[in-house]
Structures
1.
Amino acid sequence: MNNRLRVLRAEQGWSQQDLAERLGVSRQSVNAIETGRYDPSLPLAFKIADVFGLTIEAIFLKDGGSE
Amino acid sequence: MAWGAPGMSIRTPAARRYIRIHLALSVIYILLVFLASWFIPDDAPPTPGVVAFALLPGMVVLGWIWNMGRLLVTMEDEYLRMLEVRKMLWATAITLSICGGWGLVELFATVPRLPVFFVFPIWCLGLAVGQLINRLTLGDGGTCA
């Protein structure tokens, strides 16, 4: 699953650690999600959407979807 | 049974608590094995007292397993928890493969028997292999190995 997390984080000027603290997860988790090595659970996806004030589908894209 | 080198792993509060308990249990285990070796002669008959004394270190093994389960339950970070579960699955697969494979060899050929005592240490070595596989495939080893 593709996602726009890195772009959205950069727009906010946050480091991976900053975002991790806002989400209550490790920096490794943020890195794994950004690089597509791990797809978050639905509760974590909702939390990510809340942090950016967006919907889940505005952040996470189906395979083959573009940013 | 050490689970790896400091500095190579991710230290969450749950992981730190796990390591503290693990180290304490390890000290108790070594002490009990030492005492059992000291007091029980090699040719001791299997009396209830001898069996009970020999099983005391086994209680610590149960403690290690409980501590691992507690780590999984208390870890809040789902990605790190997935890394731990992957390590345990690799450890289980390796242990079952070695024990199942060697068991068949024992059945059909005259070879040294694999003492059951070694099953848990093999599983722990499997955790280290699982951490290595995590690191190679996902870039992160895990919290405790």
2.
Amino acid sequence: MAAHATYAYDVLVIGAGGAGLRAAIEAASAGVTVGLICKSLLGKAHTVMAEGGMAAAMAHNDDRDSWKVHFADTMRGGQYVNNWRMAEIHAKEAPDRVRELEAWGAVFDRTPDGRINQRNFGGHRYPRLAHVGDRTGLELIRTLQDHTTYLGVTVHMEHTVIELVLDGGRAAGVLAYDRERGRFHVFSAKAIVMATGGAGRAYKITSNSWEGTGDGHALAYRAGAELIDMEFIQFHPTGMVWPPSVRGILVTEGVRGEGGVLRNSEGRRFMFDDIPDNYKPQTAADPEEGWRYVMQDKTARRPPELLTRDHVARCINREVKAGRGSPHGGVFLDIAWIKEKIADAPAHIKRKLPSMYHQFKELADLDITTTPMEVGPTTHYIMGGIRVDADSQESTIPGLFAAGECAAGINGANRLGGNSLSDLIVFGKRAGEYAAELARKSPQPRVDEGAVERALAASLAPFERGNAGENPYKVQQDLQEAMQALVGIVRNEGEMQEAVAKLAGFNERASRAGVDGHREYNSGWHTCIDLRNLLDVSEAIARSAIERKESRGGHFREDFPDKVAEFGTFNIATRRQADGSMQVSRRPVKELPAELKQVIEEQKQ
Amino acid sequence: MSQATFRIWRSEPGGGAGQFTDYTTEISEGMVVLDAVHKIQADQAPDLACRWNCKAGKCGSCSAEINGKPKLMCMSRLNSLDLTVPVTVEPMRTFPLIKDLVTDVSWNFRVKKGLKKFKPRTPDAADGTWRMAQRDVDRVQEFRKCIECFLCQDVCHVLRDHDKHDEFIGPRFFVYSAALEMHPLDSDDRLQDLKDKNNIGYCNITKCCTKVCPEHIHITDNAIIPLKERVVDRFYDPVTRLLRMITG
């Protein structure tokens, strides 16, 4: 069995969401040859599902905003275990990256004076999210996709990477197969950019598309790269809960930004009942002040519905557990109530939140302009990922870069809404830039044929077992249920140890998975290959979460419900050892320089 | 729990020959056709090919023909279909078949490459930014809602029945062209191309594309007809022609 084709590029980008496309644009613009591999068709990546907007301190709607406030907000949201340098670069460079999109054809919503309009979002002190209604991700991906079309980037659509191959400890290339025909392809590249997104499919209830199987995390991990912060998973507070087939689909935070409120079955706005101390000075005292904030009254503070996602998700969880939930196990998110405040509320809601209106109308037979939605937490985002250098985005493997959700550092323990789209374009650009720079001074590496042969043979093993093997879909479902139940929003030592034990069993079953039929567009086979990645990522999540014996950001432990100062001094890293086992260790959080410490202090008022 | 039967197109490897196969599966409240296809994949036909991604009507991957109508599988609720008879699910017919429900839509990506790209006017402000009014961007934002599901291309008779893929770009790319032509910042001119290369004249405004658009874009009324009018004004208006003859 040999590869069908081989390709050689200066820079190979894996993943064509916002980060991958932005990296490809930057590298191609630097004049090197670029190959782009994506699992789906171009323009379908999970980025299209991002709704609310991209955070950039352009200060269009409130001139008090600046990179310093954005930086401080990001660090506070991440509970200070962020890579401060990434947070700094992100806050400083996001405005230019957003403006650049406009020059490439993106059409953002406007302020009355014709500039890019910015909206309120959880954890952001001022209106900061450049947006297009509630389909900002689609605008981002289409703009980048169309721009890429004219840059000579070679796109390999519907290709899945099976193995990352090194040459003397340095990234050298990958083995991939194309879904359409099931043929194998070998790519060699002087620099590789991982931009594969998240791993939400490790959980049963998730807002992630099928692609979120942690491929980049797992490929890099298996090749020896270090992952950090894997215990930090963001459970978005508002996913759909009914009907069952749509459970987990995202309901944008923009609903709350536009005045939507959360209520329990008793009609109480329970978010007012639990406001963390460090957010008290910035949070509205009563519903009236909260509404004034929505109306962009600069003297008002934000409503508690716009507290950080980790906190809102836990409050919802608490209400449901206390028996004050909605009929299908969520709480009520009500935007229809704004008709008490503004005259043309239904038209306003449809204009501001068109996709949400459409989504509930089509999938739940519910009109959000008249009826409250039922919502509950859904696995949304992984803060953890490949450890990278803040400036260049290079991983611990030379020649391997990472950007976007599969990279880690900027978000710390919890990501603020709107920071992911800006993360994609800020660090996608940097990864592309530094990858191109490295490629220009490097020789074309050799991709070891033996390694390719071994990976290729292993990937075909499920066909030898045929239908007699384990059903890969069943293993995946069991894994998702276990992660949901045992390493979810509320965690404890015993359950997580149980998860680790179960994962060993799933690994064993996955190694016996079998599929029938041909290699062409064989979903069962694809599942076998994705499964390996999900298992590695799940193990990293569980082991890291066991190691962090405190609660912080997206990681909440009922056996250690408080934040512990000592745990704020390090990140948890996972790395594959020579014998194949997973090593968990602690990496000190780099000390903030004095001037940034001062920025944070200034913003604490 | 009730049951329903799905009559799904299964093809032989390499496309070409194929036949409908019936699968009966359990259904529950709120299910969409894509859920049923996934259930069939997991329980009965693991190698059934189906392209999908977001399952929320946002990515435009799971286009198919359900009971003969071009639709997104993820947005087709079972309670909107007659389940007393089998529900047919087949691939889009306008594009070459790859396998089962998956078609080769690469033609669309090639067409886009041939269209003139966005070319902004000089920035309005010294800092390199532009000013635009919301009412001016509203029109373009409608077109930019397109999720590239290609259902409009699938149903367009110029492509589906007359196979004019080499001469005609189809509704999706008229929407794309309209988004650029009506973009407040764009400074390029696509009318000659629309007339001669893209053959917008082939469209006889049957509005089939508008009917199948899952994003409810008014493809015919807001994109194609205004573009046709611009082409007519430029190239066929007698007064303009006369003027052009005089002025050269």
